[in-house]
Amino acid sequence: MKLKTVYFVSLGCPKNRVDTDIMAAALIEKGLHLVFAPEEADVIVVNTCSFIGDAKTESIDELLEMATYRKSGRCQLLVAAGCLPQRNGDELKTAMPEIDAMLGTGTPDRIAELIDGHSIELQPGTGAHFLQQINTARLVTPGQTSVYIKIADGCSRKCAFCAIPGIRGKGESRTIENVVAEARMLAEAGAKELVLVAQDTAAYGRDLNDGTNLAGLLHQLNQVEGVQWIRVMYLYPDSVDETLLRAMRDLDKVMPYLDIPIQHVSAAMLKAMRRGHGKKQLQGSIALAKRMLPEAFLRTTVLLGFPGETESDVLELLQFMTDTQFHHLGAFRYSDEAGTPAFGRTPQVSRRDSYNRYRKVMALQKRIVKRNNQALIGKTLPVLIEDVADDGGFVFEGRHIGQAPEIDGVTYVVNANVQPGDIVLCKITDCKEYDLVAEPLEDLP
Ligand code: SF4
After folding, report:
1. Tens digits of residue pLDDT in 186-245
2. What strands, in cross-sheet order, belong to the sheet with 146-150?
3. Where are the beta strands (DSSP E) in 179-256?
4. Which residues, in sequence order, are bridge partners of residue 151?
5. Are residues 176 and 240 in the same domain?
6. 443 or 91, higher pLDDT
7. What's the pLDDT tens digit per position in 410-425?
8. Is 236 in the pocket of ligand 1 (CB under 6 A)?
9. Number of CB atoms found within 10 A of residue 311's CB
């Protein structure tokens, strides 16, 4: 029977989300229609994640659930795509015969070939990634106000805990011309905010060996008509330099927002994690960022429970958090991942200790967020309106310039006569845990 409808599940990071958009566009071009419920789909695609144990479990659970529609539903083709087949394709094939086809991280644009019954070569355990070309189609949802742009993929670093280089291969960048063409297309489709993502965003352009760099890209994107906000994610600490910070400071559309994943701060942990820099350099990067962009909102990510971590390492991290006052912080617990330099390293930190350290970090961060949010009350900030938050249409959900999509909390705008996509200058009137409440002052041009 002809396959007419497709349902997507997109797991993992924003880079994976972009790959899902590319798969969706390829199947729409093939004549399939997107549906938003698995029971209505002839084809189900699960774009998986597998960088740590919990992400693998979530992907397998999702595949098992979708497999029930393969057994009893309308589904005739169940596709496992992305990082799990790329990393563990052989085991997955044996463990889940319900999966009809697998697609690695190197070929999202070729998914349509599976519809014709072809299989696409996949070498599990090798690194692969996909970079859009100027003519690569990508699904854009009408009215989507904020969109991720994957400016590079893969990573050439060797952080001891990280499986990503083994899954996505070495870092490779798109050309500025290629990224700007996509930005124009997205702005024409109504996007107001472009969120730039890669594994190692600040290393953008280095592999092109022609002087291309992130600051240069930002200058070009800042000229794209219709784009109002440009946000940069995942800046590796030792790549946060004056050239980049100057561009972020001087370009009016670039958000005063610095996402700098530090992972840890103790010298022993930074060395053991092979982060390529010590505590002094890390402190130097953060201090430089604060000096050049004093108004910037700071985000970071930390990892607890890495083999050999001591209570005093954690105390050092807690002190650094108190000194730095990150506006946003995400924390992970170490997962002993096969194929990473740290795999099987001893002494392992017990699950209980790792969990207790995670809880201490998140409890401190909650207090810091509360203090930072209370300090915003009475301040005015531009807010991008994204959705209606209540039936009456008097409360809207948005994000201020210091809130990235999906990870930093939201700002509820009350007593507003606005539309999704509007950017309005608001006065912060209250805060609730990680979220804020605001009232509009005026519409911004
Ligand atoms: S920078 Fe380090 S943590 Fe980030 S993707 Fe690369 S190897 Fe992994």
Report:
1. 999 999 999 999 999 999 999 999 999 999 999 999 999 999 999 999 999 999 999 999
2. 146-150, 193-197, 229-232
3. 193-197, 229-232
4. none
5. yes
6. 91
7. 999 998 889 999 999 9
8. yes
9. 11
Pick from 150, 197, 199, 238 the residue to mutate for probing ligand 1's pocket: most ligand atoms within 8 Å of its CB.
199
Q: What is the pLDDT of residue 401?
A: 98
Residue 141 is predicted with a pLDDT of 85
What's the pLDDT score for residue 415? 83
Residue 410: CATH number of its domain:
2.40.50.140
For residue 259 and ligand 1, the question of a CB distance below 6 A is answered with no
What is the CATH classification number for the domain harbouring 84? 3.40.50.12160
Instruction: Give me the amino acid identity at 55.
Output: A
CB contact at 8 A, 421 and 398:
no
150 and 84 both lie in a single domain: no
pLDDT tens sequence across 241-273: 999 999 999 999 999 999 999 999 999 999 999
CATH code (residue 149) = 3.30.750.210
pLDDT at 391: 63
Q: Is the same domain home to 57 and 153?
A: no
Predicted TM-score (pTM) of this structure: 0.95
Cα(200) to centroid of ligand 1, in Å?
A: 7
Regarding the beta carbon of 427 and ligand 1, being less than 6 Å apart is answered: no
Report which protein residue has its CA nearest ligand 1's atom 4. Answer: 199
Cβ-based neighbour number of residue 150 at 10 Å: 28
Give the number of other CB atoms < 10 A from CB of residue 176. Answer: 21
Domain that includes residue 392, residue range = 380-440
* Protein residue closest via CA to atom 2 of ligand 1: 159
- CA–CA gap between residue 199 and residue 277 (Å, rounded): 18
